[in-house]
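I'll show a typical protein example:
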Amino acid sequence: MKTIVVCVVYFCCVLLSNGKEVHETSHIVSLYRDRSQKNQPGRPYFHFRPLKNWLNDPNGPMYYKGFYHLFYQYNPYGAIFNTTIVWGHSVSHDLVNWIHLKNAIVPTKSFDINSCWSGSTTILPGNKPVALYTGVNTKNQQVQNLAMPKNLSDPFLKEWKKYSGNPIMTPPDGVKPDNFRDPSTAWKGRDGIWRVVVGGLRSNLGVAILYKSKDFVHWSLHDEPLYFGKNTDIWECPDFYPVSVKSRDGVDNSVIRINLKYVLKASFKSKSHDYYTIGSYDAENEKFLPDSKGLTGSSLDLRYDYGKFYASKTFFDSVKNRRILWGWINESDSSADDIKKEWAGIQVK
């Protein structure tokens, strides 16, 4: 089997806390000052995290108009996982120095009133970013929703609006309403139709549930999943993307050409680790074909990282022609310790 190398760039992240102002074309944004950092033993200074409270999955990292955007699962009320989770949002020129913005997507509607869970961003033609995310509705069912920026001229994308027709995907037959989450970054086929996968569990099989759309608004369920695996429990945070076999350069999700392999990654909830497999994409039959045994739930499955690393998400950096991987490290502190120190979780890339 030919080995494909996916570069995982573990850059260090420094939170700005000098209180300076950042000037851009239309407004001034004051950076948050964290006056308590020096009194927090063990707090990371070089890996990304918000100034306080709980953080988990990275959501839809992307590059837009001079800024790298990082969205992430965030509890605005405390340092442990909460029944109310929102999309936190920070931006950076260089993936090192970060500006913390107000939360991007928060529970406000019947389709997400109990939380705005993980998802992804996709850049549509015309450089128009959109977000797909899992909402927990009034019945505690997991449904998929669409959001988009209010003002495309704002490079910070500070304000987001939700599609009035949400939800755009609901749990299909055979999938329990609490086992349907985490839509991937979408890709477009030669036929001009968009594809996206959602993680799930059906008939005790972890599945990458495939949906298709002509307009990114109206989605139809494909007859069969893109891929499934045994002995894995639910698949969370699926990721699917091409890699070149001729170059170390990254490849955009929608690129279709020869000399490509595809990576399918899933986060196995029962194991709390990220696993991936490499193979080919049969676009005509909408199937991922692994080069080896695929994702089996056994110790033979490949892992991105062999430490505490979960719910990862990649994006294509068109500026430097590379693919960057973000992942969540949950650390090992107790909930009591997290509450005491007022923060939990970091992001690495």
Q: What stands out?
A: The two ends are 27 Å apart (CA to CA). Residues 335-341 form the longest helix (7 residues).
